[in-house]
Specification:
mainly alpha, 129 residues, 0% strand
Length: 129
């Protein structure tokens, strides 16, 4: 299950296939996270991973609401692992946008955040009870 969840989480963040080194490190970290989790937390997490189509939205809604800590922790681990990969450099560092493009992106971000939160909260409510 952990390898499939690694692929789903990585794809939801970076929109591409997970590199084997990231998957390997994520599996190790994921097992450590699960050691401290309760059985109901594990069941809820597994249900979210299999049932929710937009995991990034579900994670954002969970983070804002302070729920589903295992989902949030695993996303944090994946972001840390993914930012170490050279092919993801452009996602974290922006050297090509003009000032106007940057201002437009910053103007749109609050609307995108509200959309992601509402979508994630709705998906969690409908798919995971």
């Amino acid at each position: 299950m952990i390898k499939g969840e690694a692929e789903r989480i990585y794809r939801s963040i970076f929109k591409k296939k997970i590199p084997s080194i990231v998957e390997e490190r994520f599996v190790h970290a994921s097992r450590r996270i699960e050691e401290s989790a309760t059985e109901p937390e594990l069941e809820r997490f597994r249900k979210i991973i299999t049932a929710v189509s937009d995991l990034a939205a579900a994670e954002y809604a969970s983070r804002v609401r302070g729920k589903n800590p295992m989902l949030v922790k695993k996303f944090q681990v994946m972001v840390h692992l993914g930012e170490c990969m050279p092919e993801n450099y452009h996602i974290f560092i922006n050297e090509k946008k003009s000032v106007i493009q940057t201002v437009l992106i910053l103007a749109i971000l609050p609307f995108n955040s509200v959309y992601k939160f509402l979508k994630g909260a709705l998906l969690l409510k409908l798919k995971v009870r």
